[in-house]
Design brief:
201 residues, mainly alpha, 61% helix, globular
Length: 201
């Protein structure tokens, strides 16, 4: 039985700045008014978002959190997307099984058909997806593409051209020491992963 897919990302999109704020406040033990800050004055919204972002941070190693707190915005954005892929198997699987596979054969256009066939295929193994309403399904698709745009995996949600990835060296380092296979969510080939692994050892 496969692990159930989580879809709570539909409430958040990538939220790199908010994730950095939460990570910094966690380490300084200062979480006063954090829910109000995240929810733009709405405590209930902020509470939901805080819970969500804490779950993402919970997937990261100590060194990855350090990059999230202190890296350049590009590094922070890369770590935010890493956290999303570590927490949401649906997004990770879509990136590795569809986007990376297309990228490897120089097919750079991500289509509705690509997404639809992936979604249908996964429904066979994830019965929980059968109970998703049409509205929720639309939202999942919309936010998935939005996150891919925010992470720079695709150029934008309209034309969806897959972009080459060149990670910051601090991001590379903390991913390789965690699990080099995670570089696949940034479309790295097996050969490149092997080479980088050797370079960083």
């Amino acid at each position: 039985m496969e692990k159930k897919y989580k879809f709570s990302f539909t409430a958040a999109s990538l939220r790199t700045k908010d994730l950095v704020t939460v990570a910094l406040r966690k380490s300084s033990k200062n979480s006063d008014d954090l829910e109000l800050v995240l929810g733009n004055g709405k405590s209930a919204t902020g509470k939901r978002l805080l819970l969500e972002l804490n779950n993402w941070i919970g997937t990261l190693t100590k060194h990855q959190i350090n990059v999230l707190q202190n890296g350049s915005f590009k590094s922070q954005n890369e770590i935010a997307f890493l956290a999303v892929c570590k927490y949401f198997d649906f997004i990770r699987d879509f990136v590795i099984e569809v986007i990376r596979e297309k990228y490897m054969v120089f097919d750079y256009e991500l289509t509705d058909g690509d997404y639809l066939s992936f979604f249908r295929r996964k429904t066979e193994f994830h019965p929980e997806m059968e109970s998703l309403t049409e509205i929720t399904q639309k939202k999942i698709k919309q936010v998935t593409f939005k996150m891919l745009e925010q992470a720079g995996i695709i150029n934008n949600v309209k034309s969806r051209i897959i972009q080459p990835q060149l990670l910051e060296s601090d991001t590379l380092k903390v991913i390789i020491e965690d699990n080099p296979e995670l570089l696949k969510v940034f479309l790295y080939s097996d050969i490149d992963i092997q080479r980088l692994q050797e370079a960083y050892e």
